[in-house]
Every structure is written in structure tokens, then in C-alpha cells.
Amino acid sequence: GKGGYEHYMLKEINTQPNALTNTIEGRVQDGEVTLEDFPEGTFEDVDDVQFVACGTSYHAALYGQQLLNQTGIRAQAFRASEYVDSATGSITENTLVIAVTQSGETADTLGALRGAKERGARTVTVTNVMGSTAAREADDALFIRAGPEIGVAATKTFSSQAVMLSLLSLRLAEDIEAVSAPDDQAELLRELQKLPEYVQTVLDSTAAKRIASRYTGSEAFFFIGRGLNNAVAKEGALKFKEITYEHAEGFASGELKHGPLALVTPDTPVFALFNGDKDRKTLQNAEEAQARGAPIVSVAHADHPAEKISDDFLEIPNTHSMWSGLLANVQLQLVSYYAAKNLGRPIDKPRNLAKSVTVE
Ligand code: F6R
Questions:
Q1: C-alpha span between 197 and 186 (Å, rounded)
Q2: pTM: predicted TM-score of the whole model, two decimal places
Q3: Which helix (H) or strand (E) holds 116?
Q4: In this predicted model, what pLDDT tens digit does every residue of 203-251 receive, in sequence order?
């Protein structure tokens, strides 16, 4: 049942601390990542990583791509629907293909997984459903253990996927000789253990609900972020359009001035995401939008320089840049939820959408 919540989506947003605890459980020990079925050294031959996924899972894959590239491992996230026709030619025997799929049943993603196998790639799926087709067909499966997700809009499974891919990227860095684990791995893993608490802090705040009410009825909604927060900006926009039916777009911050800025007006709030990484540039991009009259809603930790220039502020706990985007994402989930509720939308079953898309 909905456990006292008005919608499954709200329940699922609120149970993220628990979902994340389950995702992490037993996988971090003494400053190291341990993954079941993957003994030390199992990834030592990996040269490059290709992610295949759709929708929200694709945004989690973008997060993974960014982390791997930062570590020095070649990685690319592909839209599963594009992969077989345009990308399998780049597979080598040392390519690891990671299919990210909550349901494990998405036809586009299964098609990409099969295409990768045919080309001889090693395959892993990151999924929420044991016994799913992806789990059966991939060489190995990593379960995110987020618990069943009923709402059509993916929420807790995105958070759990992003964390699972972060752990996997740290394991790859440990196994692959040519790259080294991040200098601050012990610290970022300590912060990961606190992530469920930090998410709870976000859930306990009321700013998202107030901001959703303030801007419901705007002409369009834009989300900007760079690096890991580029993935979060795109996910924030997808969630927003799915359940509110309003026009929303997510951009890499720096891209705004290369075209989308033409859409920015006083009636298009811009949500700017900050995570301590190249924030000065994102701040400047937010100010470019503000100069065209757009209200700026910043998502950042307290006392961040963005607070001074912002029209509204969504606070997140101050944590490692690897995780802060996931806290920003929870704020954006809440904004989408309350905006959809203000508009009277059928939040758990948006029009034209299905929980699991089993046609290509
Ligand atoms: C968005 C959403 C969809 C799915 C996509 C992939 O909220 O739910 O975009 O993320 O259809 O689904 P899975 O992860 O089951 O492969």
C-alpha cells in the first residue's frame, strides 16, 4: 500500500533513506568497495565502459560515465534505442557493457544488451528486479535493492542506481592497473554512509513545496548543472515534464548561452544546481539567465555564494561532490511532485506512459 502517503511517488521519494541503506549494505568495508560475485581483480582487463539505458536510467548512466571519466577510465553512456544501430561497432574484447534498467524488462535496453553480447562484450546489468530478463541474460547482475517501485516516475531507483554505479566505478578504479582510486576514497565512502541521513534532512525541509507553489503556472522550467549535475539537471527536467505535463528542459550549464538562452524569460524559472565543482562558472551561467529576467532557484549547501544571487534557495547538506547531486535530485523530485499536485495531475499514472516499456 501507500503507507499513509497520498501517492506511491511520494512514498517512494520518502523511503529513499531506506532504499539507499539497502543499496550500500555490505558493499563498503574498511574504506573499500566489495561487490558480491566480483572478486578482486575481476575487472583488470577492462579498457572501456559503455552504458546502455533509457530515460531516468540513462541519466543514472550519465552520472556513471562522468565518474569513470573523472577517474581516468574511458566510458560513454548510450541511449539504448540508438546503440545497436550506431555504436556496437566500437566494442572490443575489453569493453564492459553495463545495462542500467530498473525493471530489467525495457525492450530497448534488452536489445542493446543482446547486441553487445553478439559482439562479444562482457555484460553486467544494474537492475532492481531479481529474475528479470536483463538479470538472466547479462553475464552478471548487480541488484540495487531499492524495493518495488510502483509510481511510473522513477525516483528511489534513480538514487540507488547512481550509488550502485558509483560503487562500481570505484571498484573498476581499484581493479584496473592504469588508473588509481581517488585520493579521497576513504572520505567519500564515509560520506556515502551518511547519505541516507542527508537525504532525510532534505525530506524534512519544506522549501520545495513552497517553491513549487510559487512557480506553478510558469511558461517553462529549466534546469542547469555541470559535470555530475548535468545528469541531475536532465533528470530533474524529465521528472518535471512526465508528471506535470509542463515544458521542462535540462541543460549543461555552459550550453545555455549556445541557444536555449533564447527561451529564457521572466516566466521561465531556472533551477541551478551547485556541487562545489566549477561552481563559479555555473553561477555565471545562472546570472546570464537572471539578466534576462528569469527567476533563479539555486540548489546548494547553506552559505554557498549562489544564495546571494538567487531568488529562491533549496538547501542541501554539504557533502562530497560525488553525492551532492543526489541530494539536489531529491529536492527536484519534491518540486516536481508538488507542482504536479497543484495542477491536479494523476501523479502515479501520467498519461501516455507505462512503468515498463516492452516495445522498441
Ligand atoms: C522515468 C521513467 C522512464 C524509465 C525508462 C527505463 O521516470 O520511469 O524514463 O526510466 O523507461 O526504464 P527501466 O529503468 O525499467 O529500464
A1: 18
A2: 0.97
A3: helix 107-118
A4: 999 999 999 999 999 999 999 999 999 999 999 999 999 999 999 999 9
> For cell 562522468, what's the residue?
66
Residue 203's identity, in one-letter code, is L
Q: Is 355 a catalytic residue?
A: yes
Q: Whose CA is nearest to atom 11 of ligand 1?
A: 55
In the chain, which ranges are E strands? 28-29, 32-33, 48-53, 74-79, 95-101, 122-127, 140-143, 221-225, 248-252, 270-273, 296-300, 312-315
For CA atoms 141, 146, 147, 152, the dihedral sign is: negative
- Tell me the residue type at 295: P
Residues with Cβ within 8 Å of 140's Cβ and at least 6 positions away in sequence, in order, are 37, 38, 123, 124, 125
Q: What secondary structure does DSSP assign to 183-239, as a single string? A: TTHHHHHHHHHHHHHHHHHHHH--HHHHHHHHHTT-S-EEEEE-THHHHHHHHHHHH
The position carrying cell 521542462 is 248
57 C-alpha to ligand 1 centroid (Å): 6
Interval between CA 138 and ligand 1 midpoint (Å): 18
